[in-house]
Structure prediction request, 449 residues.
Amino acid sequence: MSTISSQARIHGEPLQSLPQDLYIPPDALEVYLETFEGPLDLLLYLIRQHNLDILDIPMAELTRQYMDYVEKMRASRLELAADYLLMSAMLIEIKSRTLLPRPAGVEQEEDPRAELVRRLLEYESIKLAAQRLDEMPQAGRGLAVAQAYHERIAESRPPQIGLDDLVAAWQELLRRASHYTHHKVSREELSVREHMSLILRRLGAEPLLEFSALFDLREGISRMVVCFLAILELAREGLLRIVQQEAYAPIYLQAADVSA
Amino acid sequence: MSPPEPRSPELHSIDQLKAVLEAALLTSVEPLSLDELARLFEGRIERATLRMLLDELKGDWHGRTLELAQVASGWRFQARPEYWPYLVRLQPEREQRYSRAVLETLAIIAYRQPVTRGDIEQIRGVTVNPNAIRTLQERGWIDVIGHRDVPGRPALFATTKTFLDDLNLRSLAELPPLEQFTRHEIPLG
Prediction:
């Protein structure tokens, strides 16, 4: 902030630094500080601004600069979010742990900065993803969906499909899939996390789902594998329960938040 | 008095089938799925045939003002991107942009779903603004799909098909990949 653009000139002389008595309205400072989305965002800004190596953060330097900003916020009587103070405490704790001598012969413990670096990198990737999302065309913003006029006569007839039909279709598909696997060339992009959401959504509507009913029978073997992986991942994260009354009985899935 | 229901003529040729699909797609408010399109023909046309017809229809419209696109919920016609700068002038109000808080919350839900409020706070390092969640819910882009079985039973958020439709995507896998820039300068913004 101490150097400014050489475009500014006073009496033909380039202005090298801001005059000491230049008045900065407190509101302007407030606006500037409000551009940070939180302590992680502020830390990232400091690291990038000063070209610090994020994988080898000089803690003393970073902590000092961070505290400077936090002090400025306090001085301008901004209501300081507790998150910022919590981060101050965390930075000081990391700094003090790096200073402690390690007794010889003791196992090398993890770099005290590791967790902070992990969180900074994760936040940065999300921050960039958010910018990318914002740049994409959206319906009503860079994307116009066509809709010709047509007088509608209300008539709804939802398709009726029984569980037996699904099970039969599933078995038929498995039989066919085993014959035709080598013909599958579709390179559809698949997403386990998308299927996790789809499955939880269905479990929200129906408390108990038979295992085989969860597979989309028309979408091919690779998608069924993704669905299966999604079920395993949901079970691992404790988001669903897999139940079976006895050996060889049908397997049912249940959302973990439904009391049994 | 409702008008007499027009009788559906027998469909003989590929062109007639495509014309029916085209009329349905052009007049639909929402994208039409293969299941919905199959109902046009009372289920007598195989899904594989429908897919082939849709591909042909897409080709027929190549180079015209509208294009046939496939998104998460199905198929729809949309204006080719080059017309947007003109179409935007008919919009009554200036387009609104979401705040960074809203966009980052959306990104976390999109890339890490299903997530709780706590997961979002862990990644962003700040308390979740309830308005950010509400804004995204009112837009129909996220919803609650369950609850994590821990004390407090926090809600699990996920993105919806509407989100994918509105961003012109068929699935989450088409989102820009999550990248980490460890060396680049990040502009303050």
